[in-house]
Structures are given as structure tokens and as C-alpha cells.
Design goal:
Length: 133
């Protein structure tokens, strides 16, 4: 079983790298424009481009691991995608963005560490949720 978990961990890392590459942008506006490009084409396409979400759900079902950390990983991934969809929906329908307007106006640079945080956080939660539960 440990070998399966290790294989799943490697697969999760590769899926996170895939997501990291398509969600590119050095500044917040570039990042949101890139997300919006795919969202505008199709909501279904936008959701499909988050394969790590489906992967963590599949892993949870495959290993029948419903521990707190494994469930937390799934919830965080769902929350991440839903926040992005909410932002894209507000932009697409030209609704009020609230506090996000100031962030978009300032257009801060996204640090490489922030971009790579998904490669640190999600695999760590995966290891904690599956190897130590």
C-alpha cells in the first residue's frame, strides 16, 4: 500500500506542475486574464483544467481514507477552484468585485514562492493524510 501512496503522490505532484504551468502570470492581472481566457471559453473546460481536484477525490475514494487531513485536502482544492470560478463569474458578468478591485488596480507581482506553494502545501497534506493516518 505504501508503494501505491508514493505513486499517487508523484502523480499529484505532476498534476500540480501541470496546473502551475497553465495558470501562468507574473502579475495578478496577467494571472486573472489567463484564468479568464479559459473560463470564457467554457466553464467545463476551466474545471477540467484542475485535474488535481479530481485526483484527490479519486485518491480519497480509492484508499477509503476519510481522515481529517485527507478530507481537508479535498475541501481546500474544492475551495480553491470555487474561489476562482466566483472571481471569473464576477468579472464575466461585470459584477462588483469588492476589495478585489484595489488588488487588480495595484497589480502586484506574484512571487515564484507563492506560485510554487501548491507544490509544497498539497503534497504535504497528501503525505500527512495518507501515510500517517
Amino acid at each position: 500500500m505504501l508503494q501505491e501512496i508514493e505513486l499517487f503522490l508523484i502523480m499529484l505532484i505532476f498534476l500540480e506542475i501541470f496546473e502551475l504551468f497553465w495558470q501562468k502570470g507574473s502579475h495578478i492581472q496577467d494571472y486573472i486574464k489567463n484564468l479568464f481566457y479559459f473560463y470564457k471559453k467554457s466553464l467545463f473546460l476551466f474545471i477540467i483544467l484542475h485535474p488535481s481536484l479530481y485526483f484527490v477525490i479519486f485518491a480519497q475514494l480509492y484508499f477509503q481514507n476519510y481522515s481529517f487531513v485527507a478530507s481537508l485536502l479535498t475541501i481546500i482544492k474544492l475551495f480553491d477552484v470555487s474561489i476562482k470560478i466566483t472571481i471569473m463569474d464576477k468579472i464575466y458578468k461585470k459584477k462588483s468585485l469588492g476589495a478585489l478591485v484595489e488588488v487588480l488596480r495595484d497589480n502586484p507581482k506574484i512571487s515564484p514562492l507563492l506560485k510554487a506553494s501548491s507544490l509544497i502545501i498539497y503534497p504535504t497534506l497528501f503525505v500527512l493524510g495518507y501515510m500517517y493516518s
